[in-house]
């Protein structure tokens, strides 16, 4: 019966009282686009472009890049497609962009930081994106720590004539200063995987500290709340694209915190769509408030669910 109930909810993401929450897919390469379309994704909230650069010593050609980006735009002609620029280093090492050996790769030259050393790689990627740019194309940078970096990236996007530039909020300094990072960009997207890792100083690849990397930790909810509030004051969209958006109760809590879109693996879309459809925005807000008032992740989870009766 539960299966039927999940697939019975169709159409765009929205709460029971009609507040729209576009539900987007996290996509790791062109092969995953069909599943995202089939699952009813309204667009792509995170197109991870590492697949183009992995396992090779030469960068992909311009045509190879253009065709990969075109594939995503063609899969979602009416929707937003958020393409993230290369996020190499740390948990995504790339043979062709060598960085000196580092004692703490998660704190080293990774993500946008690699483009300081290899600006030609960023130029080529933004150029390929500009060449296929269509209405829904949004380009965002990973691992942005400061407002200066947001300005640098936004200017590089504008110089190529890209229609929309954004940054990920996945470092606590970026969440703390979200209002300033928002100024030069058109949107932001919260990456809760890394945001948790850096907030709790708990390596996402070390299972012994995995219990700390719990997105229900009230401190993480505070960082999401502060970021969403800054975006709403600026009148700019704020998504969540970390794995945590795939948790139906947490998706409701993020909605209650003011997040405007949710992006997740395609397999999670039906359950999240159903959870939102079963609760009003007010219930989501209360669930969020109750969760943030708790002292532990376990209690936050329980407290939120008390306001989300539709989750069973
Ligand atoms: C994140 O950090 O939450 C995120 C979405 O990016 P990735 O998992 O690719 O680092
Ligand atoms: Mg990340």
Describe the structure.
- There is one protein chain.
- This protein is α/β, with parallel strands linked by helices.
- It has helices at 2-8, 33-38, 62-75, 114-117, 119-132, 147-159, 172-176, 178-182, 192-199, 218-234, 248-257, 269-277, 281-292, 297-306, and strands spanning 23-27, 44-48, 81-84, 137-141, 165-169, 187-190, 238-240, 261-264.
- Strands 1-2-3-4-5-6-7-8 form an 8-stranded parallel barrel, surrounded by 5 helices.
- Helix 3 (62-75) links the parallel strand 2 (44-48) and strand 3.
- Helix 3 (62-75) crosses helix 5 and helix 11 (248-257) packs across helix 13.
- The protein binds phosphoenolpyruvate and magnesium ion (MG).
Structural class based on helices, strands and sheet pairing: alpha/beta
> What is the CA-atom radius of gyration, in angstroms?
19 Å
Average per-residue pLDDT, rounded, comes to 95
Shape descriptor reads globular
Please, how many helices?
Answer: 14
- Tell how many strands the DSSP assignment holds: 8
Helicity level, as a percent range?
Answer: 40-55%
Relative strand content: 5-15%
Small-molecule components bound: phosphoenolpyruvate, magnesium ion
The termini sit apart by 13 Å
Sequence of strands across the biggest β-sheet: 1-2-3-4-5-6-7-8
The largest pleated sheet is described as: 8 strands, parallel, barrel
Short key terms for the protein model shown above:
312 residues; eight-stranded parallel barrel; binds phosphoenolpyruvate; binds magnesium ion; cytoplasm; phosphotransferase system
């Amino acid at each position: 019966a539960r299966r039927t109930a999940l697939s019975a909810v169709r159409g765009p993401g929205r709460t029971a009282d009609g507040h729209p929450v576009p539900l987007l897919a996290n996509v790791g390469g062109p092969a995953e686009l069909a599943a995202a379309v089939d699952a009813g994704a309204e667009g792509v909230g995170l197109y991870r472009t590492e697949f183009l650069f992995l396992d090779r010593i030469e960068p992909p050609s311009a045509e190879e890049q253009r065709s990969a980006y075109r594939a995503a735009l063609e899969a979602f002609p009416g929707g937003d497609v958020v393409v993230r620029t290369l996020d190499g280093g740390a948990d995504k090492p790339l043979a062709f962009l060598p960085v000196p050996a580092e004692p703490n790769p998660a704190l080293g030259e990774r993500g946008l930081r690699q483009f300081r050393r290899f600006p030609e790689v960023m130029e080529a990627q933004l150029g390929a994106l500009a060449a296929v740019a269509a209405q829904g194309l949004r380009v965002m940078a990973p691992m942005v720590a400061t407002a200066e970096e947001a300005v640098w990236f936004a200017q590089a996007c504008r110089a190529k004539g890209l229609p929309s530039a954004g940054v990920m909020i996945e470092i606590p300094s970026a969440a703390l200063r979200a209002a300033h990072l928002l100024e030069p960009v058109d949107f932001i997207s919260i990456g809760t995987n890394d945001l948790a890792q850096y907030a709790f100083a708990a390596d996402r690849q070390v299972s012994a500290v995995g219990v700390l990397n719990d997105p229900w930790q009230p401190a993480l909810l505070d960082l999401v709340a502060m970021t969403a509030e800054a975006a709403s004051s600026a009148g700019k969209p704020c998504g969540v694209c970390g794995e945590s958006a795939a948790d139906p109760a947490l998706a409701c809590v993020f909605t209650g915190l003011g997040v405007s879109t949710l992006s997740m693996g395609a397999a999670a879309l039906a359950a999240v769509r159903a959870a939102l459809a079963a609760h009003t925005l007010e219930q989501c807000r209360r669930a969020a408030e109750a969760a943030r008032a708790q002292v532990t992740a376990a209690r936050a989870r329980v407290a939120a669910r008390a306001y989300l009766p539709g989750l069973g």
